[in-house]
Amino acid sequence: MTTLFKRRVPFIAQMEATECGAASLGMVLAHYNCHVPLAELREACGVSRDGTSALDIVKAGKVYGLETKAFKGDVPALAEVGKPAILHWELNHFLVLERFDSKGADLVDPAVGRRRVTTEELSRAFTGVVMCPKPGPEFKKREKSGRSLGKYGAAIRAALKPARMMLISALVLEVVGLVQPALTQVIIDFIIRPKQDRWLMPMAVVFALTLLLRALLSLSRERILAGLGARADLELAVDFLRHLVTLPSSFFSQRSVGELSSRMQVLLRVRESATAIMLGGFDFVLIFAYGALLIAYAPKLGLMVLALVAARIIVMLSFQPALRLHATAAQIAGGRTQSALVSAFSDPESHKAFGAAPLLFARWAGAQSEELNASIRGRQASEAPQQIISVLDGLGLALVLWFGGKAVMADEMTVGVLSSFVAVEALLRRPSQGFVNMILELGRLPSKLDRVDDVLDTAPQRHGTFAPEQLIGSIQFENVSFRYGPKSPVILDKVSFEVRPRERLAIVGRSGSGKSTILKLVLGVLLPTEGRVLVDGRPVADYEPAALRRRIGTVLAGGTFFDEPVLENVALGAAQADVDQVRRAADAACIDDVVRALPSGYQTMLRGGARQLSGGQRQRLLLARALVKEPDVLLLDEASSALDRELESRVHSYLDVLECTMLLVAHRPSALRLAERILVLDKGKIVQEGTALSLAKVPGTYADLMAQGGDA
User: Fold this and answer.
1) Which helix (H) or strand (E) holds 224?
2) Are 675 and 505 in contact (CB under 8 A)?
3) Fewer CB within 10 Å, N side or C side of the chain?
């Protein structure tokens, strides 16, 4: 009996694969009535791009008062451990063990929900690492915080526009629909029975016109709602994207493109759910209105029908928790499929070159199979309540005909009233189904909101409002340290240096030493964990980001091209640039002649990341994009690495006469000739500083790099 009624572990879905440890800890905490938001747990566990470790989970649990025993054991040992326990799974995942017996285990997987596995499956996937958290003396319960409706304001407003129209049209349709039962009663009781045949044809025409009017109203409603819904979705998508682009880079580093794309779709479904819920409220009112009418027709029979409607609603409520879990699992699986698809088509040439197509197909097929299985499980779970409801509907009609027929035979009811009663009872099914759909949407909505909350609850990156027309060009780093997360490795460690206005500074070092991170800190794309980054004596955080970046030309590794003409791609970030400015920038980057030779010149569309161009041509277009701004500061990350010596020399001859501050990351000695001074980074620290000539004369990291041909 104790086992039967033992408290179940609440399910918390992970938003990304890296969050499984944080979500598992959250489920254990919630089991002990300490409800902590996943975003907070992500910080406590130090979730980074690489996920989290068992030690991080133990330390995070201690913050909330959990005392955790961690050990390695085999499958039989799981019978003795305290439940719930956190298991390490398939070498790259964490989940919660809820129950264990001789036949297998009940797991709560943050990726897919509850599932039962056999002992054989457990033996294959369980790595042996077990964590058993229990409340300690410092443990404190925490109530589950309610959702603030304010952040869903855009979705609610978007839902209201079509909902208002739907409510008005539904009211009109229901009124027109009620005319039909009334006409049925009149035709049977006052025309057919008394044999008033002269009224039969006019009433039949009125009945037909009523049906036609209802059909026309329904058609008009659907057309209007389609337009309103599309406009509402557009407004909602714009608001969502506007918030998304303000989020810090750390948010995107932990989430895949496919996942973010799927959350946009989830948000649009939230709008649809909100509309359905509002209409469900109207349907609830209709249930009472129709119920009152049925009771007026036949009190006992009307109450019987309402009891069956209540039974229908109870059935759906009882199945709601299971349906919610299946909905969450299907959404997560859909996000993975989307992500796998994006990865498969992101760089098809490289995939073919490395023979990776079969592997990518296998990954997508696995994700697609998981999504289909989740969808099938969801449909199977919803089949049982649907069949029960069908039985209840049939039972309702049978009871109406049985008791109604007896009432007619006893002269307690006319045939017309019975026919009208049956018609109203049929009309009652639609609002009762709408009300049930509202209950279903209420069940699905939390899982949708959890995924949207991951975006909406993330605060935009802080920034100031200072927006200078020009920059002097001085840059200072004061004891700057940077890491992606509290538990992540240090990328930069107390770095300090100064760049004078119009000075050209090169940064060299082995891969992973933090060179590109310095450029991103200057741009304000990343914010320092410690210390300050100053531009013209002001912290980067004081600047309005767009204003700062308008005065900084940038070529970062992996620059992006859009499916737009060459002209638009080069002028990106310089909205006021005209054709002549774009051509001058392209000429300076030694790409003007290549562009002019394209079929439509500067109006040629770039497709698929400008794949019709070579790597060197794409790199020169990125340089032209940086130069078209006529920047005060120029940041170059391997901006000429794909160029041959002759082209590189021509590009450098232009850069050499630019009157702007320049920070360049480079490995090739030829690129370093632009620099007046060189900083050498190693493991996030500045280990050498000087000119190319002076550094080459002393042993050290710089000399080692140059001895390797400058390659890192």
Assistant:
1) helix 200-244
2) yes
3) N
DSSP 8-state code for residue 605: B
Spatial separation of the C-alpha atoms in residues 474 and 522, rounded to whole Å: 11
Q: How far is CA 631 from CA 111, 242, 292, 469, in A?
A: 47, 26, 75, 11
The pTM for the full model equals: 0.68
> Which residue in 687, 314, 659 sits closest to 508, CA to CA?
687
**pLDDT, mean of each 10-residue run, the chain (712 residues):** 60 85 95 90 82 91 94 90 92 93 90 84 91 94 74 66 73 78 81 78 83 80 73 78 82 72 78 76 84 87 87 80 72 74 70 71 82 84 83 85 87 85 82 78 74 78 86 96 82 95 93 91 91 95 90 86 89 82 91 92 86 86 91 89 82 87 85 88 93 88 78 43
Is there a domain that residue 5 lies in? Answer: no
Buried/exposed 546-562: b ≥16 CB within 10 Å, e otherwise: ebbbbbbbbbbeebebe
In terms of domains, do 308 and 205 share one? yes
Domain identity same for 171 and 209 = yes
Q: Are residues 441 and 586 in the same domain?
A: no
Same domain, 623 and 658: no
Burial class (CB in 10 A: 0-12, 13-18, 19+), 625: buried
* Residue 567 and residue 520 in one domain: no
For residue 110, the enclosing domain spans 17-135
Task: Report yes or no: 623 and 639 within 8 Å, Cβ to Cβ.
Answer: yes
Residue ranges in 347-356 assigned as alpha helix (H): 348-353
**Which pair of structure tokens corresponds to residue 147?**
């959702």
Tell me whether residue 461 is in a domain: no
- Sign of the torsion formed by the C-alpha atoms of 392, 395, 397 and 400: negative
CA distances from 199 to 129, 195, 204 (A): 84, 9, 9
Distance CA 347, CA 367 (A): 19
Query: What tokens appear for 55 in the block?
Result: 């030690």
Is residue 397 in some structural domain? yes
Q: Are residues 599 and 582 in the same domain?
A: yes
